[in-house]
Amino acid sequence: MIRRLGDEGNVDGIQYLLHQMKLEGLHCNPDLFVNVMNSFVKVGLSEQALKLFYRIDEFGCKPTVKMYNLLLDALLSENRFEMNLGNVDEAKELSTRFQPSVPMYNALINGFCKEERIQEAMKLLNQMVEDGVPPNVITYSTVISSLADRGNVELALAVFCKMFVRNCTPNLHTFSSLIKGYFAYGRCHGALAVWNQMISEGFEPNFVVYNTLLHGLASRGRMEEAISVFNTMGKYGWSANITTYGTLIDGFAKSGDLIGSSETWNRMINSGCVPNVVVYTSMVDALCRNSMFNEAHCLIESMAAENCLPNTVTFNVFIKHLACRGRTEWAVRVLDGMGRYGCSPNATTYNELLVGVLKSEGVKQGIDLFKEMEERGIMPNLLTYNSILHSVSRAGMVDIALQLVGKMVVLGMKPDAFTFNMVIDAYSRQGKVDTAIRVMEGLSSGGKWSPDSVAYTNILWGICNEFGVEKASSGLEKMVESGVFPNVATWNVLVRGLFTSLDHVGSVSLFGDIISDNG
């Protein structure tokens, strides 16, 4: 009866039957209790299952490892760790009721890694060893994957090495995680070293590892090596799928190689592999990067005929390239026509168009587009605000710039360094250098932001324009004293100021003094 109620999801009926059994003094056997708990878990009531587990003695039943594993998996799979700290304590407290085991530790470590609590996962890994429970390849691979995904490939490699020290043999997932992590942070040499080690250890790559290597090489523009790997796959009997072809087409597109993209596209079609929206979008990107907008437009139109409708990302790519090439009117028409394909523009759509409009049509048109975006109920993001801020600041429209920053704060959006630099730039361009300095110092002292070379260069530009390059020397000293060193843009501002205010000989002399004082 309880099993049937569980299949129906009738937890109220189950609770009623349990209550009746308790009143009549009937005991539950462990298998029946597991069925009851599993019924709660299936409908998302893991906490209720946990409470029932704590009352297990009332039903004349003793806890088993099977019950424990069911509860622990449920708590972790529902990602309940971050809801409140008590749930972590519940999981840990639950684990103390049983003899420590590899599955128990693996479940906890996996849960912590999913919640990005990698330090606690590492502590558990060390605790396993202390408790005499040897971590297995799943334990290590989980930690290595989490570390690599977060860019800490050095620590991931250290854990990888520790596997060998503890006589634990890695598997393909272990190697794949390291390769992916190295590529994600641009460390191609490290990724290839891991690949070579994998081959030398006698491991035969599977489809996932091949695609991971292909994606890493293609994303870094190393297309010759990617094609070599692609050909090797075929030799070992691995047939390329849509992900493989899509990776190569995208890599060629981002490298500006239309021939490579086209040849791969034709190879894909000839193999009988049907392109999906991701591959179509990559091909649109390849055509646009070569200014073949008519062909890109035709490809988008053909997608509907092939029963593969373009999505918002497809249109965003097309609009981005049109706007960047000054074809804003066409880009606007594309945006307006998205609805015909069941697509709606998002913040990225407007951001791509906004950059082009601000560049080719001016601030007023950009502000109008910004307002249209809000009227359509699309929330501007930080990139939207920064794009507008850049233009209004360069136009000396300080009041509008400050209004925009104020609006960002009211909406709970956190300004970044670019935002603050644009405000300082606006004040400097208006000749309000003292105000720009006060803003910079106020933000710095409040701990909200540490001024960078861009901020100081903007200030120095204002000082040179308003007071002359002699006054800029003290600003340069403050810049260096604060640990921010001048870059090419900074020196360009100072040199321009020198040649503007002095004759050639005097400029060279004063420039030499500045170099000697700050070098």
Topology (SSEs and partners):
Elements: H1 2-8, H2 11-23, H3 30-42, H4 46-54, H5 65-77, H6 85-95, H7 102-114, H8 118-130, H9 137-149, H10 153-165, H11 172-184, H12 188-200, H13 207-219, H14 223-235, H15 242-254, H16 258-270, H17 277-289, H18 293-305, H19 312-324, H20 328-336, H21 347-360, H22 363-375, H23 382-394, H24 398-410, H25 417-429, H26 433-445, H27 453-467, H28 469-481, H29 488-501, H30 504-518
Please describe what this structure looks like.
The protein has helices at residues 2-8, 11-23, 30-42, 46-54, 65-77, 85-95, 102-114, 118-130, 137-149, 153-165, 172-184, 188-200, 207-219, 223-235, 242-254, 258-270, 277-289, 293-305, 312-324, 328-336, 347-360, 363-375, 382-394, 398-410, 417-429, 433-445, 453-467, 469-481, 488-501, 504-518. It has 519 residues and is an all-alpha fold. The chain is globular. The relative contact order is 0.03.
